[in-house]
Specification:
Length: 175
Amino acid sequence: MKTRKMVKKAKELNERTKLRKADPRYRKVLGFLKAKGLLFDETVRPRPNIKLDVIDVLWVAENLEPRVLEVFPAALIHFNKTFFNTQVLPDALNKIIESIRKRSDLDTIYKGIEFKKMKEWANHPLKDKRVKPIRDHKITKTYRLKPKALEALKLKAKAVDLNETEFLERIILQN
């Protein structure tokens, strides 16, 4: 008797999931994430050029596909113009996204997903080669140089056909 009830319940859950996966929000969110190489679903067509409401993304993550929540911070960081209505993001998720941007670590779990996994996706190389992983983003630093040193830097960089930043990086990384 228990086996029949379990099979019946499993069939009902499967039908409910099929109906939810037919939801256009699911298809849009997963289509975008599939197009960018963050998730895969063979039933969804890639949709690289769409705008997504954060409310829809969070709904899909909570109701259908928890992996969406794992890759969402990386998607928001790399493709921030794709998402609108970002002011509705929960504070905890905002804190996670800021920590990833600043390359700092958190010892937190958000809705069952570790911060470490979310951060890994931000450092994951994507299909879109225009987007660099967070670990490869350049950091702005300011140094005060004397005019003579600056002029020498410009001349030496020009001599090897590099800009000043590339020249300094090459010198630093060679040693």
